[in-house]
Design a protein that fits this description.
The protein is α/β, with parallel strands linked by helices. It has helices at residues 2-17, 36-48, 53-56, 68-82, 89-96, 100-103, 109-116, 124-152, 160-176, 187-203, 216-222, 241-259, 276-288, 292-297, 302-315, 330-343, 369-387, 400-403, 420-423, 433-437, 450-466, and strands at 230-234, 267-271, 320-323, 348-352, 391-395, 426-431, 470-478, 484-491, 496-499. The chain is built from 21 helices and 9 strands. Strands 3-2-4-5-1-6-7-8-9 form a 9-stranded mixed sheet, with helices on both faces.
Length: 506
Amino acid sequence: MSQISELKKAGFQSANAASLSQPSSDSNYRILPQNLEAEQGLLGTLLIDNRTYEKIGDFLKPEHFLAPAHQRIFQAIRTLVDRGQTASPVTLKTFFDKDEDLEQVGGAAYLADLAASVISILNIEDYARTIYDLYLRRELISFGNDAVNDAYEHNIERDAQDIIEVAEAKLFSLAETGDGQASFVTLRDSIKVAIDLAESAYNNKGGVTGVTTGLKDVDEKLGGLHNSDLLILAGRPSMGKTALATNMAFNAANAYAKSGGKEGAITAFFSLEMSHDQLTTRILAEQSGISGDALRKGNMTEGQFRDFAQAAHNLTQVPLYIDDTPALSIGAVRTRCRRLKRKHGLGLIVIDYLQLLRGSGSKQSESNRVNEISEITRGLKALAKELQVPVLALSQLSRAVEQREDKRPMLSDLRESGSIEQDADVVMFVYREEYYLAREIPAQRDNEPMDKFNERYASWAQRLQDSANVAENIIAKQRHGPIGIVKLFFDPNLTKFADLDQRHHS
């Protein structure tokens, strides 16, 4: 098989020589991981029996081959097979009559040598796995070289943390390519999963089947927060988005601690706006019953301080992990969640809030911001599916809400943010009428009779009284269930949300 031997001498070594800094005469010279025989064996098998392409075509790509000639041969075979045509040394000959890489090893006659050298067509999957594994190894070497070069390069716009995040994103992207073993799931296997879920729901007698939010009415409406779902919690400033998300995250983690892992979830909370100590102060205020203002100023009695200390002690066992790194990229969030799940487990991810995340680009212009948000929401949905956990992401709303008489948010208020509505499985809004009414104290209009003004003022005062400490969790979209409004109790002093039937006990 002289033509094949010539490839090693000519095409293969010359391709490697350019990418390695040391000369071949050096005893320490190392070539890139490779197996020329596996590449040749796979291509020869394909040329003999095109049907074997079905076993490896879903994951093996031309760039996985090291030899440029082999890359083009595989691409040509794939093209013909996909068209339903026969790929053989004869049909491929015209493609490679003037191919420079192939001429170095004997031209189109090399194709016939490949087919003639095949001993068995049963090894094609082993060949493919070997080729793919060696490709990953070469990519890891390239990744390592790039990381070293980036670290040596001094750029005023990129600090070491930026380099780490880029490296993490590249490494995750490489790991994300998988091992090529993903395939179809039969209906039979899928039915088994569906039966298990239905059985779990039946045993709970209509209760929570997902991760609990600690809010009975919300859990009843949603059935809890379900694995692989992306949930969006949106609202205008001062509506209580962060407070509600913090309550849900803590309740889920606390339920996990109290039940020994049978309920709730180990929770990751990415706080891109507030620091971890500010977030913890909110949780302590809620759990101790002491306002955050009193905690900050130290206005506590001895008994209140004991309650605070006891609450702080109880919280040490709650598996809530807070990351307050600002301006994280979606790639960094993905990497950190994978790491947390590997080390400690993970059952719920909360992002506060998604507009503060960055996409994969280092600098984004205003015109590309919509595309960047779309990339972020797609990335969060992919993260939920990959890790099989619910992802709860907070979101801002457009100012259009403020221009309407009825300021309850609608799905259309999300449209300026790209694909949030499309990617989300659940969209919820937080709305507090009390906030707006307290800032709209009626004033007597010109030429308005006093009795008319008093009547209007009394109506306003009644609405303000009725809406006191009441918040609405508006479920505007739920892919797998009903929509509607869930009313909640809200204590602004403790930034605490609770079931509405607790309002008289809080």
